[in-house]
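A.,

Following up on our hallway conversation. Structure tokens first:
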């Protein structure tokens, strides 16, 4: 009931709203993705690369000092330890294998913080394929190291100068490119957004996270489900992967953490689920931050990876059906949570992941509660922001 239906919808969210010229590409993908992802030969290739190249399974780490602080039993799912530093690579490995099977030769991708662009450039280098990454000019400037890494990997990074020059604008430009090259180009979308089948395909490729959580909890706790799952949401892919095998299990509470920016009512926020209304963005019907006359509103978050005015249709549905609790965590709360994790556990988290950590003191746990929180990425890319805010530790 929480997974996609055969028309590509989650409740009344989802679908494939694309220009006529992309209709064939999207239909072709819809027709082959399930069969391909479920085939034994794809599974073998995908799992071998996840194991030998990405370094999976990622650890499920019992965070003892953090648990003592919040008086419950917290495990961190360590996606920060993956090759390239985040969960994004789980998805790009799967999609590049699919693109290769479809005999596509040219790969395009959009990126915000640069983590998806980096993961796409990485798998293109691995497979010897051409890679073009669209990135808002604002993000090119604030995520300089990731741009240099993508270039070193052989990708062409195209700065986008429309809108406020961030993730939404990069995605617009990638779709425009796809329209011009529908036959030889494969578009690797970086999250559970876009036209059907992307949200479901990306969720399935990230579902290795909850598959591992189930096994690891069984080994460590002797039961295979937690009381709480907590993840941050930008477009929703690390959250979708975290909850995938648990969405129908009502024993498990799902907590999604959005970027509140400077506050829900500040006019500077990226809390799309809380602030959005139904609309269409990048090919899907979902919740969208928009003005009264339907113009997309520019989002704001300290974290470039969460700075997006839409949300996956799956997550919009989880919110509408009350299956998930959605919290908004502001910039200052995420920063404080990042410094806290660093000092308690010796782990510097990505700013996006720090929004999941910022949910901990908004919830009330029982001491016996088992809480699994996904640490979607590592903090290396965010050191400039942490250095600017280091007075928080003093
Ligand atoms: C991209 C990114 C996110 C946000 O994307 P989702 O699709 O919502 O997971 C979160 N954390 C990190 C580290 C990222 O790189």
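Then the amino acids I'd put at each of the 394 positions:
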């Amino acid at each position: 009931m929480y997974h996609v239906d055969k028309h590509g919808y989650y409740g009344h969210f989802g679908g494939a709203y694309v220009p006529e010229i992309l209709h064939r590409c999207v239909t072709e993908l819809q027709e082959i993705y399930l069969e391909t992802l479920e085939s034994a030969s794809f599974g073998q290739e995908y799992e071998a690369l996840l194991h030998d190249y990405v370094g999976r399974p990622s650890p499920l780490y019992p965070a003892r000092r953090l648990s003592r602080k919040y008086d419950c039993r917290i495990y961190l799912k360590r996606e920060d330890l993956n090759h390239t530093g985040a969960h994004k690579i789980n998805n790009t490995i799967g999609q590049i294998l699919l693109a290769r099977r479809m005999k596509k030769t040219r790969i395009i991708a959009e990126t915000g913080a640069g983590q998806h662009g980096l993961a796409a450039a990485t798998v293109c280098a691995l497979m010897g394929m051409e890679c073009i990454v669209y990135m808002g000019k604002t993000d090119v400037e604030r995520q300089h190291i990731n741009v240099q890494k993508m270039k070193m990997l052989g990708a062409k990074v195209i700065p986008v100068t429309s809108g406020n020059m961030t993730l939404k604008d990069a995605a617009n430009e990638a779709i425009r490119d796809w329209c011009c090259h529908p036959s030889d180009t494969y578009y690797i979308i970086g999250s559970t957004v876009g036209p059907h089948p992307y949200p479901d395909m990306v969720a399935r490729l990230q579902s290795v996270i909850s598959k591992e959580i189930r096994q690891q909890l069984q080994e460590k706790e002797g039961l295979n489900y937690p009381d709480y799952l907590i993840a941050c949401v930008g477009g929703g892919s690390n959250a979708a992967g975290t909850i995938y095998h648990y969405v129908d299990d009502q024993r498990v509470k799902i907590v999604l953490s959005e970027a509140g920016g400077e506050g829900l009512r500040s006019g500077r926020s990226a809390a799309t689920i809380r602030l959005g209304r139904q609309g269409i963005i990048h090919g899907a019907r979902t919740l969208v931050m928009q003005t009264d006359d339907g113009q997309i509103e520019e989002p704001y978050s300290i974290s470039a990876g969460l700075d997006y005015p839409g949300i996956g249709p799956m997550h919009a549905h989880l919110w509408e059906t009350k299956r998930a609790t959605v919290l908004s965590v502001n910039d200052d709360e995420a920063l404080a949570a990042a410094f806290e994790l660093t000092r308690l556990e010796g782990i510097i988290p990505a700013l996006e992941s720090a929004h999941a950590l910022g949910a901990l003191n908004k919830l009330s746990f029982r001491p016996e509660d088992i809480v699994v929180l996904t640490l979607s990425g590592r903090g290396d890319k965010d050191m400039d922001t942490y250095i600017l805010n280091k007075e928080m530790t003093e």
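The first strand starts at residue 9 and ends at 10. Curious whether your intuition agrees with the design.

B.
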